Amino acid sequence: MDGLYIRISTSLDEETLSATDTVKADKNLSPVEQAFRSYKTVDLKVRPIYHYTAECVKSHIFLCIFSCFYVKWNTQKLLEPILFDEDD
To answer: Do 40 and 46 form a contact (C-beta atoms < 8 A)?
Structure first.
């Protein structure tokens, strides 16, 4: 049987985050990873970064992702009057 086995683990107990919710949380990272990939390489080419401490790298990544989602959210709000979206 061909396939791929991935083990996803968390430090949270089962009552806080069930196995199903853990998998859902992992799958929800896809848009974040896509935005980060787009932000760093193809679209904006803001590489390389020259940070050497873990705190600076984490801060840089947070600001990149935050700004990307803010631009996306702001653009959706501005275009909302001309875009059609079903509530159903």
So the answer is: yes
Other Cβ atoms within 10 Å of 84 Cβ, number: 4
Phi-psi region of 18 (alpha: psi -120 to 50; beta: other; left: phi over 0): beta
DSSP code of residue 12: S
Burial state string for 12-22 with b = 16 or more CB within 10 A and e = fewer than 16 = eeeeeeeeeee
How confident is the model at residue 6, as a pLDDT? Answer: 75
Please give the Cα distance from 38 to 8 (Å, whole number): 25
Tens-place pLDDT, residues 20-58: 888 888 777 777 777 767 766 666 566 667 888 889 888
Q: Is 74 helix (H, G, I), strand (E, B) or coil?
A: helix
Place of tokens 């980060």: 36
